[in-house]
Amino acid sequence: MAAPSEDQAVRERHERAVATWERFDEEVPDEVLRAVSGAFAIVACADGRLEESEISAFIDMIKDTRAFHAVDLRELETQFRRIGRAILDDFEEGRQHAFHEIALLERGDPRQTALVVSAAQIAIVSNGKLDDAEEVVLGQICEALGLDPAAY
Questions:
Q1: What's the CATH code of the domain at 38?
Q2: Entry pTM
Q3: In angstroms, what CA-CA distances link 43 with 26, 85, 145?
Q4: How far is CA 61 from its chain centroid?
């Protein structure tokens, strides 16, 4: 059997990540929202820039999820842009801050850590391509959460 095309691999990964979000049906605590924002931003900035398509994908991911119905999307977008800008302005310090937010959930509720990982996966496919640098960052996010990167 032939390997799936990159487009098909992107679609399949996106569908798996979105399914994780659809199964989560409770309010999302602030610390999870910060970790999700940080994970998405770290991946989105892995190539040294933050594209509008990546910001839109993040906002759409939040908007389309029942668990985020009480979230102020404008405030969230502002927070997400601020995290992204911090990473782009000072890559190491910005990443450190975002990883700190992610690590607060280390070995926590598996459903919450799954949201963080799936946010990173959605960020990876948000521009329609699979990128090796972003895959490395996904592995680092898994490690920060105390998860096995090979499982993702």
A1: 1.10.3680.10
A2: 0.80
A3: 25, 13, 15
A4: 10
